[in-house]
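=== RUN LOG ===
request id: a7f3
mode: sequence -> structure
chains: 1
length: 324
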Amino acid sequence: MALSKKPIGFAVFGLIIAGITSLYTGVINLDTGQILEALRNGGEHDFVVNHYRLPRMVLAMLVGAGLGLSGVLVQGVIRNPLASPDLMGISAGAGLAATGLLVFYPQAPLWLLPVAAISGGLLAALMIYATAMLTHPTPARLALTGVAISAFLSSGIDFLLIVHPIEINTAMVWLTGSLWGRNWEQFPLLFAVMCLLIPIAFWLAWRLDVLGSGESIARGLGVHVTQVQALALIVSVVLASVSVSVAGTISFVGLLSPHLARLLVGGKHAVLIPMAALIGALLVLVSDILARGLIPPTEFPAGIITSVIGAPYFIYLLSRYKGW
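=== RESULT ===
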């Protein structure tokens, strides 16, 4: 455990540096004095700092942490390094439900979007489970089933956008994964969900470690395997779905974060969980900074940045596990 403190400390330091950089990044160039003045007293740059850059910074951290945690939990349950919320179809299910709400009920209250996203994510998870139960549910088969379900649900999103082209601009910005237009209104629910589910994730840590040794060993040590698997999947689905409801479908964060965390701190979930959350937060925050700062005033969706990073890594993982 002591060996893990150093990488966690570096990750926290990197997150602080990225957070500070986020406050400087944008079309309007602000110096340190102007930023500090806005943080203390508001003033001329109050909107830019306190109502645009600061909420985006906080939301990027929370969304990334949620996706990183979701990826750790789903990989721990399925015991498949290729599993992640987006590749398993959970993000696509949440995205389809939220897109349907945006298309058919554009004036929906803000609280209804995460409810729809969570419902869609849970439905996608049930589809994966039901499909996998038709055959022997090996880790590889579950992953392939998730990819197929994800493609099916993504086609549903494409269908909605084609049939309802008037709403395509808002939906496309959201579906490519972006924190554009997000503000403090999205913070309370996301923060509350994280505060509620992070302790549950830590409670699951030891049980997921034991489960990794095999279900029979876990049962012998007193772990209720089915209950632990169900709880971990529910927590994973809710974390991914709420994150999707805020920032859209930001791809590969749930895949990259657990892998990078394992390289740095090993496979013990008590350390892996916070490390994956920190890496996820850093990935999304840095992607949002690049999205805003590469060619201002043009802004790229953060999901494009994470895809550019994540897609080659996914191909690398496929080459490593080609014997499955």
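=== NOTES ===
The chain has a mean pLDDT of 85.
Residues 2-320 form a domain with the ABC transporter involved in vitamin B12 uptake, BtuC fold (CATH 1.10.3470.10).
=== END ===
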